[in-house]
Design brief:
Strand content: 5-15%
Shape: rod-shaped
Order of helices and strands: HHHHHHEHHEEHEEEHEEH
Helix content: 55-70%
Structural class: alpha+beta
Strand order of the largest sheet: 2-3-1-6-7-8
Length: 348
């Protein structure tokens, strides 16, 4: 081999092996075939460097077996990239059939992804169903709890209130009145208690019937309730008898409130099927003297005193208000109960 041939082969070897592309010397540039080989190998080097860096876009402009293999590899890799993108979008039907063992591994991976995703979707659907069932169960439980709470509240209300008129029953009225009297005694606040009885109510029931009587009881409660002050309350004592408690009211204030209630009721007839019917009531009032509001019998004593005044109102002609009070008489060792006709004084 002469020196020139060795120089040519050395240049080609450098093109194939060196990191840096060797320059053609002036003596080599004069050989057309070597220049052609130089340009083709240079192009192949650049394409392969791009491939190794993950860039499969360079155009392969040379011909031959090596460039042809590179073009085929480029096409396969571009198609593989597209298939991977399709798998990324959820298309697990993609299969690779042109890269030997890689194809088998890729296809198994896609199949496993499809199986795993299908299982995850099934679990997700099961979780959604379970979640919906739990939500329904929670909603049902919440509804049941609300119903139970409403039922308990209703039972508590029924236990402390009259079922027909909705006002406090006798026991609850006495308990609340006792508590209010204790509070008033501590603060030296006067209070009054009043009894009300609907006049001729038995005759009313006999004339209009018991259903009309029930409606009248509700009418009476509604009418007198509108005249109560803040802090006042009433309860059903029994039958057509009702009892009122007036907080921060001496006998004069209490008498004025009760007389207003009597007038409002007398001026507001109940609407029955046969037409409006006037309803009247008699009232008795007793004032608390703070004697011993903590005593269990004290509220009952006030009720009895108010009841005494009530029957005095009945005897005086009904539809009246009578005030009970106790006067000390020098000639007697005891207390003498007396009553004042509040309605008569108001009319004067």
């Amino acid at each position: 081999m002469d020196d020139k041939a060795g120089l040519y082969l050395e240049h080609i070897r450098k093109l194939l092996r060196d990191n840096k592309i060797p320059e053609l010397g002036e003596d080599l540039e004069e050989i057309p075939l070597l220049c052609q080989i130089h340009e083709e190998l240079k192009t192949i080097r650049q394409v392969m460097l791009s491939f190794s860096a993950g860039d499969f876009s360079p155009a392969i402009t040379v011909r031959g077996i090596i460039p042809g293999c590179l073009k085929a590899l480029q096409a396969h890799l571009r198609h593989l990239i597209w298939q991977v993108q399709m798998v990324e979008k959820g298309d697990f039907t993609q299969e690779v059939r042109f890269m030997g063992e890689f194809s088998e591994a890729f296809n198994r991976m896609v199949s496993q992804l499809n199986t795993t995703l299908t299982a995850l979707r099934q679990k997700e659907e099961a979780l959604v169903i379970t979640n919906n069932m739990l939500r329904n169960e929670v909603a049902h439980h919440s509804s049941a709890m609300e119903a139970l709470q409403e039922s308990e509240a209703r039972l508590q209300f029924l236990a402390s209130h009259d079922s027909l008129t909705g006002v406090l029953n006798r026991r609850s009225f006495i308990e609340l009145a006792k508590s209010e009297l204790q509070n008033a005694a501590i603060r030296s606040i006067p209070c009054c208690l009043s009894m009300m009885d609907i006049d001729h109510f038995k005759r009313f029931n006999d004339t209009y019937g018991h259903l009309a009587g029930d409606e009248t009881l509700r009418h009476v409660v509604h009418t007198v309730s509108q005249g109560l002050r803040k802090g006042d309350f009433l309860g059903r004592y029994g039958g057509e008898e009702f009892v009122f408690f007036f907080y921060n009211a001496d006998k004069t204030t209490g008498a004025g409130v009760v007389e207003r209630l009597r007038k409002n009721l007398a001026e507001t007839p109940v609407a029955l099927e046969n037409g409006p019917v006037s309803v009247y009531a008699s009232f008795g009032i007793a004032e608390s003297f703070m004697e011993d509001p903590g005593n269990d019998d004290y509220v009952q004593k006030l009720i009895n005193d108010a009841d005494t005044a009530l029957y005095a109102a009945k005897r005086a002609g009904r539809n009246r208000v009578m005030l009970y009070h106790v006067e000390q008489a020098a000639e007697f060792a005891g207390q003498i109960p007396t009553v004042h006709d509040v309605t008569a004084e108001a009319e004067e």
